[in-house]
Specification:
Elements: H1 14-37, H2 49-74, H3 85-113, E1 120-122, E2 126-128, H4 138-171
Antiparallel strand pairs: 1-2
Helix pairs in contact: 1-2, 1-4, 2-3, 3-4
């Protein structure tokens, strides 16, 4: 069976699968990195390096999230698997909240990093310019928002992963395999 790039009504294609898992891995890695940054002092060896990586990866993640949203809009989504209506609504709300929290974490991270008027260097490849500060103490306010959004995001992502495992091992449906299997289903 060929590997489908685009989604179909039965399963996700390679594009959605890769965007999902790359995004998930980056978010999972960025959270402890961000917590580590919060412990650094000016005299720590990683004081400049680790925040630089965090900002650069964050801007790449922002690009991936924008690509992921555009990909989702341009693709046919797989039909939802049979489940009670309240659970279907909760699933849709959780997915929407995952996207929203990701965007809030990314925008607030950008606002922290550019509060002093300097842009963000992305691995010395290019610079994301700074916008003028929107509020006094922008770095502190955005920092609080960033921490809360990132913590909620990682917590909801953990619940999302547990729900996928529940679907796979208890309900024995195709919820998880549709996001892992890159082979296009051809049978009806």
């Amino acid at each position: 069976m060929p590997i489908a790039i685009k989604d179909n009504r039965k399963t996700f294609g390679l594009g959605s699968i890769l965007l999902h898992w790359i995004t998930a891995l980056i978010i999972i890695g960025m959270y402890p990195l961000g917590l580590y940054i919060g412990t650094l002092t000016y005299y720590d060896a990683d004081y400049h390096t680790v925040p630089y990586w965090h900002k650069s990866i964050g801007m790449i993640l922002l690009g991936l999230v924008v690509l992921r949203v555009l990909w989702r809009i341009a693709n046919t989504s797989p039909a939802p698997l049979p489940q009670p209506q309240p659970l279907l609504l909760a699933t849709k709300a959780a997915h929407l909240l995952l996207y929203l929290l990701t965007l809030i974490a990314l925008v607030s991270g950008y606002m922290i990093s550019t509060a002093d008027g300097r842009g963000i260097e992305v691995f010395n490849w290019f610079e994301i310019p700074a916008l003028p500060a929107v509020t006094k103490n922008q770095e502190d306010i955005a920092g609080e928002i960033h921490y809360i959004a990132a913590t909620l995001l990682v917590s909801l992502a953990a619940i999302h992963a547990l729900a996928a495992l529940k679907h796979h091992f208890i309900d024995k449906d195709k919820t998880l395999t549709r996001m892992i299997n890159m082979r296009q289903e051809t049978n009806p």
